[in-house]
From TrEMBL, chains A, B:
Cellular compartments annotated: Membrane
Cellular component per GO, a single term: membrane
Pfam families per the UniProt record, alphabetical: Tim17
Superkingdom: Eukaryota
Protein topology in the membrane: Multi-pass membrane protein
Listed GO MF terms: transmembrane transporter activity
Source organism per UniProt: Sorghum bicolor
Keywords of the record: Membrane, Transmembrane, Transmembrane helix
Coiled-coil regions, chain positions: none
Protein name: Uncharacterized protein
Keyword Electron transport listed: no
Length: 148, 148
């Protein structure tokens, strides 16, 4: 894994300076945006680097294209994560405790919100809500399994 | 969320009877397969129910098709999860501790393995490895953010 050291040194030191917005809800949302946005950006960076290596040519135009794509995809991942963290925090406050049902409802609401904002049809909004809920539940289960 | 109660009553009681294979590695892998397979199956069930409700007709043929799709997608989700949990457990044992780098490497290896088994091109294997690593890292960060 050549990317291990690369993204480790890029991201680890930055994340210690968490932005303080004065409220845990905002802190979490912004933290989610920055962290997951960085992950999304790193993913595009790794993909574009691999494509450049495979083609064997690096031009100014391609680097610019890669940077734009990194920003765009990073912002998208960050927004989805920010919405999810915010929604999950709200559900946690309302329900009073935390389990996989929070993740499911949070993922479903996030999927619905994100696809509604992107002007999809009502049909797709429901499908994205179902997919979002399923993915969030699966991620919740998996993290518990690997951390136990 | 009409699906909350439905999948809650379907899945919660089952998961308490964990299969004991005699070794934590096998236990986790099987547990991951069952849990995430159930999540994948529930996702397809919810999607197919929604489609039936929207079209307004339920035939025997469609129910059979939905059941087949549930099994197929459930097995796929379960396999990916089982591989991920197994790989992550191995990495954790080798590295001796647990952080987001485990999730990243585990996700990348799982993405590479699953797409290599599915006979994709070398190009796609690397892309899936990158995507898998990014998704696993994002899930790890998100679960930490929402649980802290």
């Amino acid at each position: 894994m050549p990317h291990g050291g690369f993204s480790g040194s890029l991201t680890s030191p930055k994340f210690d300076f968490a932005v303080d917005m004065g409220h845990p809800f905002l802190n979490r949302t912004v933290d989610g945006f920055i962290r997951i946005g960085a992950v999304g950006g790193c993913k595009v960076a790794a993909e574009e680097t691999f494509e450049c290596l495979q083609r064997g040519d690096v031009s100014k135009h391609k680097v610019e294209h890669a940077l734009k794509k990194m920003c765009k995809e990073g912002a998208y991942w960050g927004t989805v994560a920010g919405v999810y963290v915010g929604v999950e925090y709200g559900i946690q406050k309302i329900r009073g405790h935390r389990d996989w049902k929070n993740a499911m409802v949070g993922g479903a609401l996030t999927g619905a919100l994100v696809s509604a904002v992107n002007n999809h049809h009502r049909h797709n909004v429901v499908k994205n809500a179902i997919t979002g809920g399923a993915i969030a539940t699966a991620a919740e289960f998996l993290t518990h399994l690997t951390s136990s």
